[in-house]
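My current task is to audit a protein record that another person submitted. I have pasted the whole thing underneath without changing anything:
***
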Amino acid sequence: MGSSYRSKSAHMADIKGKGILYEDDDEPIKLTDHDVSQNINEFKLSLIGKILNPKKQSVEKLLQKMPVQWGMEDPITANDLGNRKFLLNFTTEEELNSVLRQGPFHFNFCMFVLVRWEPIVHDDYPWIIPFWTRLIGVPLHLWTENNLREIGSRLGHVHQDTIELIEGRMLLDFDSRQPLKFARKAESPEGDEVTIEIKYEMLFKHCSTCGMLTHEKEYCPLIQRQGVFARVQLQENRPQQFSKPLVKKEPNALHSKAL
């Protein structure tokens, strides 16, 4: 009876966590139970998104307003996934594509990522934003489809068959974790350099200092670091002020004699 009671007590302690030995283990936990085909089928009509500027955006407000803006409150169900991410579930392929065609996307005048869901395991996923991009300043005798594709491939991923030669325009996938480039140097076969200007269509608020989409200029880490450095330099270059030593005055001789 006593042995049975002690065994039962130990079991209850384990259930409550009192008898668990927590080891100092930082190794990744292996997730071995999965059925990729079932999950892919379940989320084949889903878009996954992520806000980029949490100071100006919230997932909760985005999920309240964007379906209304798209005119799809009823066909869309939404889930907040945490970590600035969310999932939009559609009932038909046509409805999903009608939303995707409206990209690139912005909420509260700041960009956010929205792509078709894929079984990708990464803390940063999703991160791709497609922009229609226009190149300005390519010399006329070098204005060819191959040259435009070469420039585009140095900026992002060029969508197949999207290069518009006359307009100097193409659809590019950009990594939102990297700063946007607004100018690049190009070199002719003879070694002469020219500056190519880059224009992004439907680009909303971003940092004009570093090119990131995750903040605006007033929150740029580069400016904040420069400000701290400038204050440190100012303190170092400030002339040192030495206090004058106190000099003990001798008593007046006449006054001393009078005493």
About this structure: The beta strands are 46-51, 77-82, 85-89, 105-107, 110-116, 128-136, 157-158, 169-175, 183-187, 193-200. Confidence is low (pLDDT under 50) at residues 254-259. Residues 161 and 170 are 9 Å apart (CA to CA).
